[in-house]
Amino acid sequence: MTTTGLLDGIRVLDFTTMMAGPYCTRQLADMGAEVIKIESPGGEQNRHAIPIRDGESAVYGHLNCGKHSLALDLKSPEGCALALDLARHCDVVVENSRPGVMTRLGLDHAAIRAVRPDVIYCSISGFGQTGPASQNPAYAPVVQAASGYEMAYMQQQPEMTRPGSIGIFLADVMAAVQAFGAINASLFARERTGVGRFIDVSLLQSVIWLLVYEMQTVQVGAEHLRGYYQPVRARDGFVMVAPGGQLTFENMAKAMEHPEWIEDPRFLTHPDRNRNYTDLMALAEAWTSERDADECERVLMAGKVPCARYRELYELFDDPQLIHREAFATVVDGAGSFQVPNPPFVFNDAPSNARDWVAPFGSSAPKVLGDLLGMSHETVDDLYDRKVLFGQSG
């Protein structure tokens, strides 16, 4: 395996905050890119996100491990000029401010393209850079409500009478993944053409990408609604059993020692099972409810039936498959070590893993400004003293 990532030699200027932008640029760092994160004088908001240990946010570290940290007052002429000087040396710029903010700062695509003509500039926003909703404030829960996703999810939960509370921000994560893909496609195209590119990523449209069946059913309709996979109760928890096709259904009937289900008129064909899926799952639950979830999983998987017991998050760190895949990386910040997920893909000959360090607030200025702009330590210290730079010199 090579010791360098596939994006080794690519430099990213990161103006992002919160989740969508930082998760995108963390993926670029995981692939080997050098990421220079620009923070506000008070620090990026997630530096204060719980859980906090000894003053260090694990959420911030999760999203920003492996990135340099410079804290600039971008509203000052000198801070803005310093950011533009850095942009000359960067292949990619990523920001996720509300549309118009970077223009007012003098750091929009046009301004940076003037100093780096082949730059890949990616803007991530709730509803896109243009259009009647582009200026609407947008956090992930707002976007998820606007996307139709939450109502579609509610309609699949017969016990729910109102949309559920939102604590997992799918919109942010999906937008981060989409931006990551678009940036890499643009870098590939630039290798062939030498031309930079502007990328406009919408959280709203990123969520809509999740709604495959729902998007088509609402347009075309369906003679029969498809069955929804339902958890079944075990003696000590819940189990997901997914008898999706004919063979897996028959395997389930045999594994549960009820081969008569195979000839039951309600379950003869896939459309039959869809219409009577609740009845089928009630029969399955009568079997699972007499057993522990571990036993259900073991017996059904041995019978080639897709099945999993519902796990708590803490259990994932000891999961043999995830350990085998090296799915987690140990990262160290000022409070000690913690684990973050590695990217879900593995290359045969190059690393794709989280870097194991989190830069203290504003600490990277001496190295970054020295390496890229040739600044002396005395000049950098003067910028700290004059409140152009913030944080502690590394």
Helix segment count? 17
List unreliable stretches of 5+ residues: none
What is the CATH superfamily classification of the largest domain? Crotonobetainyl-coa:carnitine coa-transferase, domain 1
Mean pLDDT: 95
Global morphology: elongated
Q: How are the strands of the biggest sheet laid out side by side?
A: 8-7-6-1-2-5-14
CATH topology of the largest domain: Rossmann fold
How many distinct beta strands? 14
Range of strand content: 15-25%
Q: Rg, please?
A: 25 Å
Based on the structure given, which CATH architecture of the largest domain is correct? 3-Layer(aba) Sandwich
Structural class: alpha/beta
Distance between the termini: 32 Å
Explain the overall architecture.
The strands form 4 sheets. This protein has a 7-stranded mixed β-sheet with strand order 8-7-6-1-2-5-14, sandwiched between helices. It has a 3-stranded antiparallel β-sheet with strand order 9-10-11, with helices on one face. It starts with 10 loop residues before the first strand and ends with a strand. It has 2 domains: 267 residues, 3-Layer(aba) Sandwich (Rossmann fold); 82 residues, formyl-coa transferase, domain 3 (2-Layer Sandwich), CATH 3.30.1540. By secondary structure, the chain is an alpha/beta fold. The mean pLDDT is 95.
Supply the key terms.
40% helix, 394 residues, formyl-coa transferase, domain 3, Rossmann fold, 17 helices, 3-stranded antiparallel beta sheet, 16% strand, 7-stranded mixed beta sheet, 2 domains, alpha/beta, elongated, single chain
